[in-house]
Amino acid sequence: MISEPELEGGAPFETAEVLTEERAPRPPRPPRGRTPWLWALGGAAVASAVWGAGLYASGQRTEPGPDLGGYRAVDDLCARAELKGMAAVLGKRGSAGAGPEVADPVLEQRSCTVNFGEGDREQSVNVTYTLHRVTDPGPEFAARAKYSNLTEPVGGVGEQAFFGGQGEDGGTLRVLDGQAVLELDVYRTYYETEEGVVVEQGAPDLSGADVPLTQDALALLAALKK
């Protein structure tokens, strides 16, 4: 009987090696009840965004402007400025022409020059109408008048009014009424001859110009509201 070499001193069988697959351990699950903070942070972020958007929108909101008291911009200042008081002093009304203007959301200004009389008696009355749409001209009105040499208070027209006279050469009246400022001035006209001699026009004495200017300012302020 043939013996098996394995049993007759041959090399013994090696013990079989068992391979096992080792898996990485799973991370522990967070305890229940800790997840709401994620929702809270998300909700806070959304609320913050909504609040910020609200602030931005409110910042874009246009605030209502001051009460203009019925005054508005006009394109026919010369037509509205009849100046009947000055016509009684200077003579028949003649030509009129619009001057520089400002048209802006915060400020409207119109100006006009009206001529009276004929020939060497021709004189001009200048009118300037300013409507302040945003800022209040009241607090600085008296100061501006003072530094323009308009130092004589005039009652019965607008909220405040000041006149600055130049004797028989005329003067300037400035009136504040709410957001509107009206200025009228008349001055004796001079011209220079070819020989370089300064000659005054034959206008009447304008030392009492504040009275007709005040009358015309009252009428014009009423016309500017129509």
Question: Percent of residues in helical segments?
Answer: 25-40%
Q: Roughly what is the average pLDDT, rounded to an integer? A: 80
Q: What form results from the Cα inertia axes? A: globular
Q: Tally the helices: what do you get?
A: 5
The top-level CATH class of the domain at 77-223 is Alpha Beta
Give the name of the CATH architecture of the domain at 77-223.
3-Layer(aba) Sandwich
**Number of strand segments:** 10
Strand content: 25-35%
* Rg over CA atoms: 45 Å
The secondary-structure element order is: HHHEEEEHEEEEEEH
The span between the termini is 142 Å
Your description of this structure?
This protein has 226 residues and is α+β, with helices and mostly antiparallel strands. It has a domain at 77-223: 3-Layer(aba) Sandwich (Protein Transport Mog1p, Chain A), CATH 3.40.1000. Helices cover 26% and strands 26% of the residues. The strands form two sheets. Strands 1, 2, 3, 4, 5, 6, 7 and 8 form an eight-stranded antiparallel β-sheet that branches. Residues 1-22, 33-41 and 44-59 have low confidence and may be disordered.
Write the layout of secondary structure elements.
Layout: H1 36-59, H2 77-80, H3 84-90, E1 93-98, E2 102-104, E3 107-116, E4 123-132, H4 138-146, E5 152-153, E6 160-165, E7 170-177, E8 180-187, E9 190-192, E10 198-200, H5 210-223
Antiparallel strand pairs: 1-3, 2-3, 3-4, 4-8, 5-6, 6-7, 7-8, 9-10
Helix pairs in contact: 3-5
